[in-house]
């Protein structure tokens, strides 16, 4: 079975977002695997900065926060 070259475009990605203490939101990274996104989230949160971090599942072509 052969996969289509664009088949991965329909798969969700996991976005790691940050909001700083001024309310500025920044997309930090995107992951194809939720576990990797959660691992990165835990790493950033372990630094105990004032920023808020969260993960968003992003569907292909869908909105981002």
Q: Give the low-confidence spans.
A: none
Shape: flat
Domain tally: 1
Order of helices and strands: EEHE
The number of helical runs is 1
Strand content: 25-35%
Question: Roughly what percent helix?
Answer: 10-25%
How would you characterize the largest beta sheet? 3 strands, antiparallel
| Strand count | 3
What is the radius of gyration? 14 Å
Q: How does the helix and strand content classify structurally?
A: alpha+beta
Average pLDDT, all residues:
83
Widest β-sheet, arrangement of strands: 2-1-3
Could you give the distance between the termini? 36 Å
Characteristic key phrases:
single chain, 65 residues, alpha+beta, 3-stranded antiparallel beta sheet, 1 helix
Report what the structure shows.
With 65 residues, the protein is α+β, with helices and mostly antiparallel strands. The chain has one domain. It has one helix and three strands, in the order ββαβ. Strand 1 and strand 2 (25-31) form a beta hairpin. The longest helix is centred in the middle third of the chain and has 12 residues, at 34-45. The protein is flat and about 35 Å long. 8% of the residues are buried. The model has no long low-confidence stretch (mean pLDDT 83).
Write the layout of secondary structure elements.
Layout: E1 13-19, E2 25-31, H1 34-45, E3 52-58
Antiparallel strand pairs: 1-2, 1-3
